[in-house]
Specification:
- The protein has about 80 residues and is mainly alpha-helical.
- Helix content is about 70%, strand content about 0%.
């Protein structure tokens, strides 16, 4: 029985050594050629630009928004 295990191991090693003996899955290009796939880099750029715009507005208007919030809380607290 040990000889069968060694023979099986030797055949597996031989198959791994010869890459053409091991079938590889084929890639399908159906999803790549789809006309409505979308523009991922464009959406990433839009998202980043929106985040930068929000951060810039928050940096510029932060003190005014904080003062407005504090005034509203003081009015509600009375």
């Amino acid at each position: 029985m040990a000889r069968h295990g060694l023979a099986l191991l030797a055949s597996v090693v031989a198959l791994i050594g010869h890459s053409e003996a091991v079938p590889r899955p084929r890639r399908t290009t159906a999803h790549v050629d789809h006309p409505e796939r979308g523009d991922v880099p464009g959406w990433v750029m839009i998202t980043l630009m929106s985040a930068v715009l929000v951060a810039a507005l928050l940096a510029l208007a932060g003190p005014a928004l904080e003062a407005m919030f504090n005034q509203a809380m003081d009015t509600v607290g009375k």
